Each structure stands twice: as C-alpha cells, then as structure tokens.
Amino acid sequence: MRVNTFRALIRANFQSILTGKLLAIDPSVGSRSSLPGWAYFESGKLVASGVIQVAVNNSLQARLREISEKLREQFGPVDVLAVEDIRVWRGARSMVVSLLKGVGAALCSVDAKVCLEVIPQAWHGLVGDDYEKSDEKDAIAIGEYVLYVARQYAGTKKQNKPSSRSGASTGRNSQLRAGKL
Description:
By secondary structure, the protein is α/β, with parallel strands linked by helices. It has a single domain (about 5-160), classed as 2-Layer Sandwich (Nucleotidyltransferase, domain 5). It has helices at about 5-20, 60-75, 95-110, 120-125, 135-155, 175, and strands spanning about 20-25, 35-40, 45-50, 80-85, 110-120. It has a 5-stranded mixed β-sheet, with helices on both faces. Strand 4, helix 3 and strand 5 form a beta-alpha-beta unit.
C-alpha cells in the first residue's frame, strides 16, 4: 500500500479510528522467535494487548489455521484493522513469504470495515532508542502510529509522538478470558 493510499484511508476514516475499535497486528506465522502480536484500542485508548500463542512445531498451514481461528474467537467486529505492511523485494527469502501469509491470515480472519497496512519505517519513528522489541510492543506501536496520524487529520491539538509502552499487557489479558473484545 502506498503512503498516499494509507493517508487517504486515515483521512477518510479518522473518526472511526479515534472513536471506534482498532485492532493492530504485528504479523507472524508463529515460530520459536516470533508470535503474532496484537493490540486492541477503543476510542483511541489501549484496552488490551498480547501475543497469539500457537503450536510452533506444527506445519505452516496448521499454524496459519490456528492463528485464524484464534483471531476469530478473540475479536468481534472492529472498525479498523491495522497490520504491518511487509514489503517484498527481488530475491525475498522464505521468511518474508511466510510473513505475507501471516498478514493474509489476519486480513481474512478479522471482520473489519477498514484495513490499513503500516510500513515499518513509519511506526519505528515512534519508538525511542531504548525500545526493547517484542511482538506485543510492535503491535502497540503500529496502533499508536495509526492513532497519531488520525489525530492529525482530526485537527486536534498538536500531538506529540506517543512513546511506546513497555508493559502494556499487564493485567489486561484477563479481559480476554471473559469473552470477545
């Protein structure tokens, strides 16, 4: 997705982004080093975040099916789905192809009115030098970036770039056990 298309979608949907339900996904197909991260926002505020646990020893197809099932089970309809935009280049490695399949699982599994793809360079600009990468924190940063851009179009007061949270999920995953977000 081009940056112009991304910004056009944000401009056309900034009210839904700021007042509705936003689900941000840091895609993965599930491995020993990475799991799909997610962050759920309502009315511009982080409600819950975490990672989707999958059986990493299963086949790629089984992991994708498990990710898809868990996304459908955990999340009801949302106004906006934001996923990291995975760029493919000539000679892309199989890891990139697998990530694209993870993006596809998210896009097909979440009932969203609008889908946004966020380039990594955009949300990386929100995090400081002391940022400790994790799948969950990456998803939070993706969602915060979408909110940051939406606030610019809403004409709200000049927004400082949000600082990425270090432990956003503490105490929030219990809300998931009670039912769908």
